[in-house]
Write a structure and sequence with these properties.
alpha/beta; six-stranded mixed beta sheet; 15 helices
Length: 465
């Protein structure tokens, strides 16, 4: 595997070296955090081609471009485990930019920005980005106490690190250091904690030219999502809501008044029947883990997908607020005939190139009919126990067995709007939020999603299942 990675790095270096003329003015490595399948790789290739075209007009810039999906590393999105190879294969570079596939790069403005640092500064530990910080503890950041002293970059704006700092970080990674804990949730935040090293490391320098919203001064900025075709009909989607009887009034009533009123096919999977919820399906329930319950949802949903010839299964919690209208737009970029799993990606034990990725359930997730059928093949993905964590096992371990990599979409959110910096949400175009705790979920829906859902058909008469 190591030789394969070296070959890929070498191939990229040779290809880009032919495009740009090497010079001490700016030696730059651009690492694009890309992923499979076709839609995402196509975006990564377009970004790479655009950068190469810009580089042809700059005769004093050397640019190397890495697409991380080519490296075949399960945890490349966490950034740390790719640093040793970056240094080893591009040791002459001065700057290292990390960005996402939706980051637009104005190469001349970027290199002009980097030229503002003199040769002695470039030999120091410098880290540049659009800086944000937490205002209060949040679940997505392990409830760490927030402080203005610790800032992290908006990832879709990109961030830049000098070679000396990358070299130090790579040495720490190679020696076995890693962020605290076994779970990877927010890569930009966790990588920043690693760089900051409890105040002993390097602080992020806020650079507004690494923008959140495009303007003439920007060197980089996030591009907004554009559908790949006409919106998917709502009639081609089945929605499964995980609930239990104690939340029927408190939560299901909210969902029915907001996004669920637009669903043509929906089922509420609960431990008890309820005359007020004719769409309720009684299913085994556990107080934790929920693997048996979610597996039974997959089996029952497969029958509905097959009998009604539907394309997509959406699974949500009973305290997930989302936009079906926005979700249908996202689905235009995927083929339901392929094994597709979409949602918010988490990672378990990734920093040593082991472990696996999985889709967290609270943000909501989407599975193609093709994949649902694969997951319920007899004996293939039976839960180790009823209380095994459903998202880690069914949408992590089992996806790995199928050979399907979960697709991360930053539009899905495991927490509430207040748990994220405003500028972060401005560049992510949310499709979902999670948790009703200390918020008015109806207000969240009206503020973030009601307008996007307005184009959907009027409420449909649900068919009892």
């Amino acid at each position: 595997m190591h030789f394969i990675k070296l070959a890929i790095f070498a191939a990229f270096a040779l290809e880009i070296a032919l495009v740009a003329i090497a010079s001490d003015a700016a030696k730059l490595v651009i690492t694009v955090l890309s992923q499979y399948p076709g839609y995402h790789t196509a975006k990564a290739y377009r970004l790479r081609d655009n950068i190469k075209e810009q580089a042809q007009d700059l005769q004093d810039v050397s640019v190397n471009i890495i697409l991380t999906h080519e490296l075949n590393l399960v945890g490349s999105w966490t950034i740390g485990n790719i640093l040793p190879d970056l240094i080893r294969n591009f040791e002459e570079s001065q700057w290292y930019l990390f960005c996402e596939v939706n980051t637009f790069i104005k190469l001349k403005r970027l290199t002009d920005l980097l030229r503002g640092f003199n040769s002695s500064q470039v030999q120091k530990d410098i880290w540049l980005g659009y800086a944000v910080y937490d205002h209060e503890p949040t679940i997505i950041h392990h409830f760490s106490d927030p402080t203005k002293k610790f800032k992290y970059p908006n990832p879709s704006s990109g961030f830049v690190i000098t070679a000396p700092l990358v070299r130090k970080l790579a040495q720490r990674v190679a020696s076995g250091e890693k962020p605290e804990g076994e779970f990877s949730i927010d890569a930009a935040y966790e990588f920043s904690k690693f760089v900051w090293d409890n105040g002993k490391g390097t602080r992020l320098i806020h650079v507004p030219e690494l923008c959140v919203v495009s303007d003439d001064t920007c060197a980089t900025y996030p591009q907004h999502f554009h559908p790949c075709g006409q919106s998917i009909p709502i009639q081609k989607v089945y929605v499964a809501v995980k609930t239990c009887s104690k939340f029927h009034v408190q939560r299901i009533s909210v969902i029915k008044r907001t996004w669920a009123k637009h669903a043509a096919n929906i089922g509420y999977y609960s431990d008890k029947a309820d005359d007020n919820i004719p769409e309720a399906i009684v299913t085994p329930n556990t107080t934790q883990g929920h693997c048996a319950k979610t597996y039974s949802i997959l089996k029952h949903s497969n029958e509905i997908l097959t009998s009604k010839k539907l394309d997509w299964l959406v699974i949500t919690d009973d305290d997930t607020i989302l936009s079906l209208g926005k979700l249908l737009q996202l689905l235009t970029c995927y083929n339901p005939s392929d094994p597709v799993a979409l949602g918010e990606r988490y990672g378990f034990r990734l920093w040593k190139n082991s472990g696996y990725n999985y889709l967290t359930g609270g943000a909501g997730l989407v599975l193609s009919a093709n994949l649902v059928q694969k997951l319920i093949e007899p004996g293939f993905c039976s839960c180790p126990s009823p209380t095994t964590p459903d998202d880690m096992f069914l949408f992590g371990v089992c996806l790995k067995r199928v050979g399907t990599e979960p697709i991360h979409l930053p539009h899905f959110h495991q927490a509430r709007p207040d748990d994220y910096p405003k500028v972060y949400l401005a560049s992510q175009e949310p499709v979902s939020f999670h948790k009703f705790w200390q918020i008015d979920p109806k207000q969240v829906y009206d503020e973030w999603f009601a307008e996007a859902d307005a184009y959907l058909l009027p409420p449909v008469q649900h068919t009892e299942l």
